[in-house]
Amino acid sequence: MIRHACLTVRRVLSVGLRCFSHVSTGEIIEDEFEWTHLSRQASLYVHWPYCLRRCSYCNFNKYISRQSNEHIMTECLQKETESLLQLSQVSSITSVFFGGGTPSLAHPSTIAAVLETVSRQANLSDQAEVTLEVNPTPVGMSKLEDYCRAGVNRFSIGVQSLQDEDLKILGRDHSSHQALQTIEEARRLCPGRVSVDVMFGRPKQSVESWEDELSELLRVCDDHVSLYQLTLERGTQLFKQVQGGQVTVPAEDVTAEMYQCARRTLDQHGFLQYEVSNFARHNAVSHHNMSYWKGRQYIGVGPGAHGRFVPLGDGGVTREARTQTLEPDVWIREVQQRGHGTRRKIQLSHLELLEEVLVMGMRMSEGISHKHWELFSPQLGLREVFGTSTEVQELLQSGRLILDDRGLRCSWDGLDLLDSMLPALLVELERQICQQLQKDCHVDTNKEDLQPTMTGMLIKRMASEKACS
Ligand SMILES: C[S@@+](CC[C@H](N)C(=O)[O-])C[C@H]1O[C@@H](n2cnc3c(N)ncnc32)[C@H](O)[C@@H]1O
Ligand SMILES: C[S@@+](CC[C@H](N)C(=O)[O-])C[C@H]1O[C@@H](n2cnc3c(N)ncnc32)[C@H](O)[C@@H]1O
Ligand code: SF4
Predict the structure, then answer these.
(1) What's the topology of domain 16-293?
(2) What are the residue ranges spanned by the domains of the chain?
(3) Which of 148, 223, 272, 374 is the one with CA 20 to 30 A from 133?
(4) Which pLDDT tens digit goes with each residue over 210-227?
(5) pLDDT-wise least confident of 148-162, 259-273, 307-321
(6) Which of the pair, 445 or 140, is modelled with greater confidence?
(7) How far, in Å, is the centroid of ligand 3 from the Cα of 169?
(8) φ/ψ of residue 379, rounded to 5
(9) Phi and psi for 366 in degrees, rounded to 5?
(10) CA dist., res. 418 & res. 411, Å (int)
(11) Please, which pLDDT band fits residue 206 given cuts at 50, 70 and 90?
(12) CB-based burial of residue 113 (10 Å sphere; 0-12 exposed, 13-18 middle, 19+ buried)?
């Protein structure tokens, strides 16, 4: 059985670049390439690292705080936002996403303070999407209205399951009833802009119970659904329980069936699958996440946040992959001392950038258009890169992959198998780029010397960063 695409969904991360325009209606359109103007735009991710407790399956960057340090956290988030905005060449922020951890533990005034800082430093349109992730607890729900007053206009609610027994096994801090109430309240406040996260492949789950649960969710949810296959993350309690035989999770062919069943059900309810894990109706796609998948620039603020942007001072051309310090207390000290807590920055080579554009772009149902690819690779078009490889030809003939006048994308069946197709695509990309490099430099290097050592590096880098998808 080929590995399910959803498995890597959360592992494979985002790019960010300068090649699109954002119109004031909030609609994002691919526009004529206007390098200078577009390099001045980015989305902003803000990480709130604290949770009330540890869910049994989660290995995101989160900490259980014993005492409140919200005042200092707020100051540092503001400071780092200011520093990174200054360092980037960005004058316009097109979307903001407060993720975590549990950002709904933050006081609404903290959210307001960060948004005010953004507005002071850059243009943040009233129409820009501002999302906050919410754990559906009574406390979280009671603050929704104040979050809206602070500037939030989209909620992403971590429902995970509608089965109380399963919520207990997962270690969640809410009941299914509380989740339903939170969805209702969020929809009242932000109609059409509420998303729910739900996980499948959970312990003891069957395809039938998953079908019923999803149908129940679809009766109450708004216009956006994110479906994540539960990943057993090393080091988590659930991982140990499964290893020890105390808990069993559905086999891979069962989770593959759950995914297909969910895709069909969502389709019947008018939801368009626009990405491996994401479904929207009435065009309620997540603009923030789209900016990751489209390879636009983004700035990451807060412990463990990552970003992709071109910093000032290196000639203004090379995009960096940046990761902030993970541990909140250390991050706070660094921000206090030098204005930001960037722990790691790597300049992305042209090949690395294209690899990210490929891996992220293929996650979207629309795939990568010729025009989109050309923005990043003006010299080598999609057909030139992928049109001649035998392996890629086989994927095209199998009907899982499509390369036509629109561009390169997965078919309906192929999207489920994206993980298994990516290695062939990456190898071909690397081969073609290396050949191009040889031609450009007139270097008579043995082709074998240039074989794909990069794929391993890309997978390593991306696996160390996790974002939604
Ligand atoms: C990191 S959480 C942060 C938001 C919030 N604290 C919550 O739990 O809803 C974001 C999403 O990641 C997904 N997630 C976390 N751990 C996962 C895992 N091991 N497998 C699949 N999805 C996971 C969950 O669906 C969750 O809604
Ligand atoms: C798993 S996704 C779920 C998003 C939700 N489905 C939606 O569309 O609104 C969100 C999580 O990914 C992680 N994430 C997203 N962007 C990130 C970034 N730039 N840096 C670090 N973590 C990020 C955070 O843990 C965040 O809680
Ligand atoms: S899933 Fe969400 S609430 Fe649970 S530990 Fe992870 S970040 Fe915290």
Answers:
(1) pyruvate-formate lyase- activating enzyme (3.80.30)
(2) 16-293, 351-463
(3) 272
(4) 999 999 999 999 999 999
(5) 307-321
(6) 140
(7) 13
(8) -85, -35
(9) -75, -15
(10) 10
(11) very high
(12) middle
